[in-house]
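Researcher: Here's the sequence for the chain we discussed earlier.
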Amino acid sequence: MTVTALVAGLAAALAVAGAAGLVRGRGPRPRGGGRWGRVVAALARLGRGLGPRAPGSLDTRIAAAGLSAPAADVMAVKCGAALAGLACALPLAAAAPGRLGPAACAAAAAAAFLAPDAWLRRRAAVRARAIEAELAGVLDLLRVAVTAGLSPARALAEVGRRHPGVLARELRRATGRLALGAPAEAVLADLERRCRAQGIAALTAALRRAGRHGAALGPALAAQAAQARAVEAQRVAEAAARAAPKIQLVVALLLVPAVLLLVAAALLPALTGASGAT
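Model: Thanks. This is the structure I predict for it:
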């Protein structure tokens, strides 16, 4: 069990190193000096050309996590991490009894290979929650900008520049691509891939209708903002409902016994004194 824990720890360390490099947007071949960048670059060199071709879904997961790394580079990091995890597990496998050594080696390689996928999914889920929380405010600002006479592209650029948050950064990225001449359809499709949250599809559909047919954006944005607030209020209410049993459990297991102990500590001298006098 100790050997398995050590192997799992090494595999997790390798996976975290690769994930940290991806968070910084360095990719597997950074030009800068950072420690995590060098680790990711080493893993990419180790795994490049040895692993399978990147699946098509990896591009989608990378985009949903808000990263811009090529799928082939991420696949190289994953394969390099698996090889490094296997290499770290080999010395420990010799001391493992029976068939535990080969199993630990396989577990270490598999954990190091799959951990970045789990990290991408978790990061995408965190981003989706943040976007859903910001969506109503962003839609209100868009509605005000469009009602004031700005074009949809200019309104997106202004809101992206003035509003903080994950969604605003994605809007700045989208309008930057539009300014460079990218097709509007490709930009909106990329926005949906990078912002996989409830309400984004309706926003991009309204922008498509406005671009193709000249449909008014103001009423659609007002309705979507109201819907986003209702969804966020429901999510907060559900979170509060889930928190209530946890609070009751803490009160029952920690606070009530603590109060009883204090009462017992206060009564104990009186009880012992009464029994001694008797």
